[in-house]
Here is the input.
Amino acid sequence: MRTIVVCAEDTYPPEMTPRREHLLASAQALTDHLWLERLFRDHDVRVEALWLDVVEGDIRRWDPEQRRFELLADSGLSELLAAMRRRAGVFDA
Here is the structure.
C-alpha cells in the first residue's frame, strides 16, 4: 500500500459545507498520529483526501500546497490513478 484515500461525499461542493473540515481533519489525523506518521514516512505512504459531489458527479482532490480542493477532470483523475499505480509498483502493460 502506497496511498491511503480518505473520501467524503455530499450534495454540495466542499467549499459550501463545513463537512469538508471533517474530511481534512480525518486525513490529517492519520498523518499526525505518532506511530502511523513514522510508518507512513518509512514506507513512503501518502494520504489523499477526495471529495465526491453526488449531484454533479465531480471528484475533487485536496491540494495541500494550494490549500483548496481541485476539480479532477478526466485527465486529472487518470493522472491521480496512474500515480497511485506507479507508487504501488503496478505498471500498465
Notes: The beta strands are 3-10, 46-53, 58-63, 68-71. The helical segments are 19-32, 34-42, 74-88. Residues 3-74 form one domain. The chain has a mean pLDDT of 84.
